[in-house]
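Action item from last week, closing it out:
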Amino acid sequence: MKHDKDVEDKTNKPKPIRYYSLFRYSTCVDYLLVAIGIVAAAVCGVVLPVFGSLFAMMNQAIVQMGARQHATNSSNNSAANDTGVGYISDDAFERIWKTYVIGIFVASACMWILGYIYTVALNVAAERQVLRIRTLFLQSLLRQDMSWYDSYQTGEFANRSIEDLNKLQEGIGSKLGIFINYLFTFILCVLNSLIHGWKLTLVMLSLTPITIISTAIVSRVEAALAESDIKANGKSGGIAQEVLTAIRTVVAFGGEQKEIIRYDDNLKEIGRAHV
């Protein structure tokens, strides 16, 4: 029986689809909101490396100012500058720290505004699409024949639709913006590192394949566990709803213990998925 059940699950397993297929129910307004969100997230990712450049500029100015003061107080100025660090004037130092303060303020404001724009735009677009999918899903259920409902647990469909669509909303909502944001931040940080210190950057990039492979393995394991978790939650929720709906019939035939065992078996599957 278990072998037959496994074969049936593999047969009914839905085929994976490409990411862009998740937007098949989008309208022109949804596409516009997604485009605005992606552009805002990309620009927000570009702004983040500016903080590093501003900090490096300010740090270099502080080092140069400290070297100048040390050389001024030293009796041997030539020996004080053996490190090769150049000096900086007071006017130049003042211009740099003013640029640093203004730049940090402007970059922070841009990041806050752009982060708000892409979060709101993508979440609104995702909410509109999920609402449309829920409507179409309900219409599809209502068009089925009565014999179809005898083959499936209606409670399981209700639980699965809620959990699956919530995950779909997360995947095409703010998480898409976060991914675009981090992607552009990574690209700009690598380019900035190659410009200022390409040797050390190449050494660090040599570890990138290990990070990518380990991340891919963890992502696949998490996806498999999440899928089994959703299936187990859907089955257990469907069993609970089915029993509670027909509780008088269950009590009349003395099937309480049988239903408890059936529900407990599904809870064990959820526990194995979480472990």
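Closing note: Residues 90-142 form the longest helix (53 residues).
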